[in-house]
Amino acid sequence: MVWDWIPRNTALIWGALQVHVVLALIPVVAGLVLAVPLGWLASRNGAVRAVFIPAASVLYTIPSLAVFIVLPAILGTQILDPLNVVVALTIYTVALLVRSVADALAAVPALVVAAATAMGYKPGRRFVSVELPLAVPVLIAGLRVAAVSNISLVSVGALIGVGGLGQLFTEGYQRDFPTEIIVGIVLIVLLALVVDGLLVLAGRFITPWARVAA
Amino acid sequence: MDGGIDVIEFRSVTKRFADGTVAVDGLDLVVESGKITVFVGPSGCGKTTSLRMINRMIEPTEGTITVDGRDVMAGHPADLRRGIGYVIQQAGLFPHKTIRDNIATVPLLLGWSKPKARARAEELMQTVGLGPEMAGRYPAQLSGGQQQRVGVARALAADPPVLLMDEPFSAVDPVVRESLQDELLRLQGELGKTIVFVTHDIDEAVKLGDKVAVFRTGGHLAQYAEPAELLARPADDFVDGFVGRDRGYRTLGFLSDEVPLGTITPVHVGESATGGWTLVVDEEDKPLGWVTGAGPVAEADVLPGGTLHPVASGSLRSALDAALSSPSGQGVAVDDEGRLAGSISADAVLAALAAAREAA
């Protein structure tokens, strides 16, 4: 471990960390935005659910490296374009979250939905003010898995030359320089823990009602 | 009150579900304004379906339903529903909203300002007997009975003329249920809403209803009558079986009390009883219980008495129950302040019943 390598390379490390955060978290946001309507469809319609949920599971099993390489052909992007990673991770996030959203919406008590309807909520407003807020605790759980999984998957992008903390692995490996590899690993773990913690806190903040139960 | 305008009317209403089940079959019924009308019957009799067709939670297959002369099928269902209060089974409160915001739901949907809606919510909390400290709590922090009060307050928030109550008290224990029923009757005395109340409990129906509609399996209306009429003259064997074995006894609850009171000489603690059963009262003449035998009365000797018959508000049922439940066989009648008014014998109640029958 060459400790003084770290202060000499803060710009490199900091840059890699920033790229990593962006590449990991944009797909979480994009995936959430896509998964909510898809999950809603799946929760409303048994046939849709029967297609979406298995399809999502299959998508998730495709190796990330393969997706990174195949996507440029489909999207018409350059192989080094970070967009490939963003799109691939968005697909994984959607695959993970569709099920969470569908389950969370299906778990909203029928009586509560009926009460909302009987009070005079129209379906759109009812979804936004009653069903979606009640799905938040399950959604947060899904988001935590997706965020941590994306943070680890972004490192794979380094193999095809996309930046991020994974770069510290590939470089350290090529130069036979373990310090750089260890710094990369530690930062990825720390980043995953911090993001996970922030999601937990955010979840608590927006669902004060969930803590008073029991 | 608007002098008996028919507020809700079912005209040959039939509901057939997609699977072919007929839930309601050719229902003709007029729900009177300002009264509590109870739909009662066994499960699968169409009572809940009928209720839910009033606010279009379920749409009729045939026939028309009008609320205050307007066909419920005209216009957007959400607009209809905002004008009709709805209390659902187990309260159905929004778990993620505070009590205040739960109650303010319909006013906010109607576009009231937040401060106005919240002020209204707090006013209603008082109306239904919830302390202001509960305004910021969540439903999970309340007992079942309190949640049900919130459910009633939420239904009343926009002051709708019509209130639909779908087995609202079925999930609470009997003691709480009874107090919620009493509370509803008290509220109705002040508000005079047109209330349609669904229950499977005939006792609840008879206690709350100004009129009771008994439904039978298959969605037929078996009888539609005032509770006393229902108990005294069930239309057929189904209604007879449904209203229960002791309907004769329960009919007494609808006969006002004309029982002559006997005189009774009570003693106070510390005084001497003269033998046999003697009633003991406190300094304010309120009954404490009974002692047997002669001699000075000690507080420890007093046996608990039976139910008390309130002279002003009681019925033949409470009079008979007072007589039957008293250890001495003599029922105790009390005035409004709970002071001893006289004694009641079962024979006197039966004589009063015979007189009431003769008069009818």
UniProtKB/TrEMBL annotation, chain A:
Compartment annotation: Cell membrane; Membrane
CDD domains, A to Z: TM_PBP2 (cd06261)
Transmembrane annotation, as ranges: 12-40, 52-75, 104-122, 134-161, 181-201
Gene Ontology BP annotations: glycine betaine transport; transmembrane transport
GO cellular component terms, semicolon-separated: plasma membrane
Pfam families, sorted: BPD_transp_1 (PF00528)
InterPro entries: ABC_transp_perm/SBD, MetI-like, MetI-like_sf
Annotated ABC transmembrane type-1 domain residues: 17-199
Topology class, membrane: Multi-pass membrane protein
Keyword entries, A-Z: Membrane, Transmembrane, Transmembrane helix, Transport
Main location: membrane
Similarity comment text for this entry: Belongs to the binding-protein-dependent transport system permease family.
Protein name in the entry: Osmoprotectant transport system permease protein
From TrEMBL, chain B:
Molecular function per GO: ABC-type quaternary ammonium compound transporting activity; ATP binding; ATP hydrolysis activity
Matching PROSITE patterns: ABC_TRANSPORTER_1 (PS00211), ABC_TRANSPORTER_2 (PS50893)
EC number: 7.6.2.9
Family: Belongs to the ABC transporter superfamily.
Keyword Zinc included in the entry's annotation: no
Protein's name according to its UniProt entry: ABC-type quaternary amine transporter
Species of provenance: Pseudonocardia oroxyli
Keywords (A to Z) from UniProt: ATP-binding, Nucleotide-binding, Transport
Enzyme class: translocase
Any single Pfam family the record assigns to this protein: ABC_tran
ABC transporter domain mapped to chain residues: 8-243
